Amino acid sequence: MMKREKKENKKHRFRIGSIQSIITISFTLIFVLAMLFVSLSMFSSFSENAETNAAASARQILGQAAINVENYLETMMQISDLIHDNLEKTSVENVQEIKGMLSLTISMRSDIVTVAVFSESGNVFFTNPEYTCNRNYVVREQDWFKETLDNPDTYLFQPPHVQRLFDEWRPWVVSLCRTLDVEYLDSRETWVAMVDMNFSEIEQLCGQVSLGQRGYIYLVDQQGTIIYHPQQQLIYSGLKEENVEHVLGKEEGSFIDNHNGERRITTIQTIKHSNWKMIGVSYVDELVENRHEFTRFIIFVIAFAILFIVGATVAISFKISQPIKRLEHQMNRVERGDFNIEALEVKGEDEVKRLTKAFNLMIARIKQLMGQIISVQEAKRKSEFKALQAQINPHFLYNTLDSIIWMNENQNYDGVSQMTAALAKFFRISISKGNELIDVADEIEHAASYLVIQKIRYKNKFDYTFEVSEEAKQYKTLKLILQPIIENAIYHGVGKIQDKGEIAIKVFVDGSNLVYQVSDNGYGIKPARLNEILKTEQVKKRTSGVGMKNVNERIHLSFGNKYGVSIESELEVGTTVTIRVPVIEGESDG
To answer: Is this structure's pTM higher than 0.85?
Structure first.
């Protein structure tokens, strides 16, 4: 027994649905969820801080780059102011003096490519260097010239372009144009001064800015034209694009956008004097590259914590659940009907100890009560069985003796002899040496003896037939279950009709059931009365319910409520009573 208990405990050591598994899984899930929540919160906070710091760094770098570009543009504005001031102080007719002053000014800056002054009609007044002007280049028809005249006293910066003013020189420049109010030939005219600066300076200033390994900056004007881009050739060839329209609609600062499936930090800085915008692009994954290391660290911590908590919870849950498992094992044995168990050892936590004590007391009390119940039920069954059988025999004997007395009073001595012989055979089978089970053939003979007696008593008022299958004759049956039904068929059925009555008895096997059917052609039973016949409280003496109820209760006591008596009846047609008992093989005691 101890080996079997150890085997059971080992078999059920850990299973889904057990206390141990619930404690282990619950604690593990709670801990994992808590760890995930904390880790995700830390990761989110880390990512947000990293992106915020990256954006702040990008703004700082972009701000310095913008200052450098602004200084570059301010230089162009200073040159323009010098030209403006010199022309105001000196008469325009003194051409040589003006050219000398402008040449001196230009020589001060190596990044100045071209300086030119145009009259209101577009004629070239002064250029430095003094190259041959392009005759096909009509200044007064150029958009930049017209725009400058339309916006007096305004600094107009032109995006990078090829300067086509000279025949043999095509530099890549950025131009600043502004109007000049000069006195020429005794009249005031508006002229245009143009300062070209080498675009490579802007490329150098912007190219020095580093926003990570892949990050870059570019410049756009207020119309969205790209002034500078490190991948200018790809932009012009359509192999790369920038979301310039989206950027123009944004204020200064940083924001996160998703461009071609990549998250980028875009930073916007406005360049003073020019309304240009410097755009810085840095890639989130690159700027927060240590996010992956942080992620690996979190995964390692969670995995280690899960292993630790699983081991700890398994150990704790085992300690808590082991006494309960022992109790469960004993309860399973009780559930299977095995009450031969010893009292459990009381150990464990306080609640488990109390539960174990209660279980031990319960088992002891159940054993005591079961013994009492078995004794009481056995005695009750025997007394009920004897009472039912005693109730049947006096009832029949009274009717039979009444018939014998009646025949004797009418001097029908042959009938008295025949009925007395049938009565003797009837009681011989009824006694059957005290056995409760008899052959089906004996039960049929018992019923036939009863019918012989009753047919004499009723002066052949009815006929009867037996139809018994050969298969049914090989089995055993509970005795004295057919006669009470036949008695009711005679007394309440054929005995009260004017025509000759007919009683048909059939005995056959239906699956695992032995079936008796007693049919008569009597008046039948009213539906209301039919529902009352088998109910104890509705039965009165000398009615159809007495014998039928006794038979039904005897069958229930012997075989259970699955078997018993059923009635079908139709007024003016007749009644059929069906008895179902289980098929019983073997020989009766005796």
So the answer is: no
